[in-house]
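Lay summary. Proteins are chains of building blocks that fold into shapes, and those shapes determine what they do. In this project we predict the shape from the chain. Here is one chain we studied, written as its sequence of building blocks.
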Amino acid sequence: MNVRKIIGWNLRKLRVAQGLSQERLALAAEIDRSYVGRVERGSENVTIDKLEVLAKVLGVPAADLLIEPPKGAREPSPLSSGRRPKI
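And here is the predicted shape, written in a compact code that computers can read:
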């Protein structure tokens, strides 16, 4: 797995685990939502600065985004689509 895919894998896993949409993550990191999607797909060459910002928003060390997933690990599931019900 190449480094871009590893970063995307970990970004999505951490984002979904925290219940953040791509849009919410992008707003908190002050970047474009489509950029987050491209990073998660491994098609964007993310800079160290952006990696650091994303990690800070997720509350993890930037190094956590570089950890290769175990062989045979299942791809992180997406969040369910649609708006959440108002409370």
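What the prediction tells us: The mean pLDDT is 88.
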